Amino acid sequence: MPDIKTEEMLLNMGPQHPSTHGVFRVVVRTDGEMVLETESHIGYLHRCFEKVAENNNYLQVVPYTDRMDYLCAMANNLGYAQTVEKLMQLQVPERAEHIRVIVTELNRIASHLMAFGTYGMDIGAMTPFLYAFRDREMILKIFEKLCGQRLNYSYVRIGGVTFDITDEIVADIARFCEYFEPSIIKEYNDLLSYNGIFISRTANVGVLPVELAISYGVTGPSLRGSGLKRDLRKDEPSSIYDRFEFDVPVGTGEMGTIGDCWDRYMVRIREMTESVKIIRQALDALPPGEFCDKKAFRGVKPPKGEVYHKVEGARGEVGFYLVSDGTNKPYRVKARGPSFSNISVLDALTSRGDCMVADMVAIIGSLDIVMGEVDR
Amino acid sequence: MNTPENLNPDPLLRDTVFMNSLDYLVNLTRSNSVWPLTFGLACCAIEMMATGAAKYDIARFGSEAFRATPRQADLMIVAGTVTHKMAPRVKRLYDQMPEPKYVIAMGGCVIRGGPYVKYGYHVVKGVDLIVPVDVYVPGCPPRPEALLEALFKVQKLMKREKIFDRSRRTTKPEVYVPGAIG
Amino acid sequence: MGLERAEIHEIVKTKFPDAVLEDAAEAVDPYIVVRPEVVEDLAFFVRDEPRLRFDLLSAITGVDYPDKKVIEVIYCLDSTVHKHWLIVKVPLPRDNPRVASVEKVWKTADWHERETFDLLGVTFEGHHNLVRILCAEDWEGHPLRRDYVMPESYRGIKNVVY
């Protein structure tokens, strides 16, 4: 049979798309079903966080920080609060530190549940989405009891936390941990992780070598899926993370090659177990005392200077570069969102010649991006 | 649908023969199967997803099928901030929807700019500058119950329409032009 | 843990003796200030030198100082091997800010430099595709400059409502 002549086609996976996790546009040049080259376009959610932060005082910037990565808002708040505290050399009470760790880890679980649910939906499985949201609603109910909001909390502020954690909420969290681990994680593994169709769609797809990942600035579970054991909670521990015992899961190439989509997905599932471990230890060690520095809650005027601080969010390293000129408004705040660097690796992963159009959806889902953080 | 006894004394015919207008019947079926367009842009999209999930089930009101293509949808829930880079695409998607179409503006950012109204240079201060909006839902983000209430208001709007005005020439709201009135 | 910040600054100063303008090793977050001309050589040096091995570029950002007539470009570097970090600042003249691109050293610099160009107007020489990344393609002006005025309307949509 003679060779059929094929032509290239330019396809636009536009800003409105069911599987691009937000407003993200990719222009794809394909030859049939194989992808030759992609070009990503971002900026459709640029909400001018840095300009807004220059014109509001330090306390007013806090709600804008949690609208950047709206799925793990506590980590963003924590990063900003710790940056200002580092510049002011402010000491936060012990109880507030423990509460911060508990809520950050709970939010990490909620964020990974969302990633798990939507990844299943992208691949084609509808059920894991509903199961993930069932458990996510339990966590959101705890947060609503704690601070009144389901999504953009603004709970962790400069000097401590806004409301105290009552015994009823402590009992709720303990009951949730009891319910969640190990039985629900085993349920997710039975449902999706070792499913034959899921494995054949994600194993050996989008293999990200470690050197390429570091050169592109990839951090978080996407970097750990390629085998490098780098976690800011262990490498540069801020707050009281060095008092807790937990493991850092990395990808091992169990189902295919090391660094493929299945590895990145499995790192997130395993991280949920580790987060529950940290929450249990923090709940046991919760000391009585003050939950905030009341003077800092009324107004903050850091000395002149600059500082850069990073924390481990659910998607990678959230960094804040703060320039202060001595007044009560910051001179410049730069936010480094991890998804900005994570998504830039997509162009390199798809131009190797072995990627199909359906694989692109699997790769974007496994990188777990949030466009609020990419565009800020 | 409740017929008083004196109108239909025959017990065989009671509760089996209903008298009402054709408008009512058509609007009843239309309003209980409103298909939304997946147009989640930012944080409000997560609450829209939570409304579609099992706890605040939107499927019990007929809106289970979230279509990805505007050609098959009749309700556009604009959930999240609209920026100047995204604005032409919002207008194009709205134009691609077939009549009769409805728009819910969900969240503070699409009502009048939300928290970004004063210093956000790249944010469109309200999606009603681009498309005509029927229902506004305040909140940052609004609770899933609030979005369900907005859906009920759209259903109520649908029940008031006439089938001879299916393209909504008399009932569609207008695009907001700042400073045009007074 | 890797080297102390003061030792890292010493290693850089020994290799580039006349390019380091300021060494603030006692600040809350230590940094060094270098001349714009040596940026590319410095980048290759800190990435490849075995004692330093700064292979992860965390962020490239810029700050506008209109009263000092300077735009400072800041590189935040991290090492996954030795677990130490470094901040490099490069002051540029405000009316014509140009500096060499470090895209060949760390591939993540591609998008970070495009963002700094978009928001502050800094031109990175040697970049293969320096166009706007966050704002719309035909946006005018560089928003993060201190003298930026929000446009009244953009393509017919009114931008200032109150």
Briefly, what is this?
The complex is a heterotrimer of chains A (376), B (182) and C (162). Chain B has 182 residues and is α/β, with parallel strands linked by helices.
Protein model, in words:
The complex is a heterotrimer of chains A (376), B (182) and C (162). With 376 residues, chain A is mainly alpha-helical. Helix content of chain A is 50%, strand content 12%. In chain A, the strands form three sheets. Chain A has a three-stranded antiparallel beta sheet. A three-stranded antiparallel beta sheet of chain A has the order 6-7-8. Chain A starts with 8 loop residues before the first strand and ends with a helix. Chain B contains five helices and four strands, in the order αβαβαβαβα. Chain B has a four-stranded parallel beta sheet. In chain B, α3 links the parallel β2 and β3 (102-106). The longest helix of chain B has 16 residues, at 144-159. In chain B, 45% of the residues are buried. By secondary structure, chain C is of the alpha/beta class. Chain C is 20% helix and 29% strand. Chain C has three helices and nine strands. Chains B and C meet through loops of B and β9 of C.
CATH domain topology of chain A: Cytochrome-c3 Hydrogenase, chain B
Average pLDDT of chain A, rounded to a whole number, is 90
How do the strands line up in the largest sheet of chain C? 1-2-5-4-3
Number of beta strands of chain C: 9
Q: Report Rg of chain A.
A: 21 Å
The oligomeric status of these chains comes to heterotrimer
> Termini of chain C, distance in Å?
53 Å
CATH superfamily of chain C: NADH:ubiquinone oxidoreductase Nqo5 subunit
Mean pLDDT of chain C: 88
CATH class of chain C: Alpha Beta
Strand order of the largest sheet of chain A: 1-2-3
* Name of the CATH architecture of chain A: Orthogonal Bundle
Fraction of residues in β-strands of chain A: 5-15%
| Overall number of strands of chain A | 8
Total number of domains of chain C: 1
- In the CATH scheme, the class of chain A would be Mainly Alpha
Task: Kindly report the CATH topology of chain C.
Answer: Beta Polymerase, domain 2
Helical residues, percent of chain C: 10-25%
Shape, principal axes of CA atoms of chain A = globular
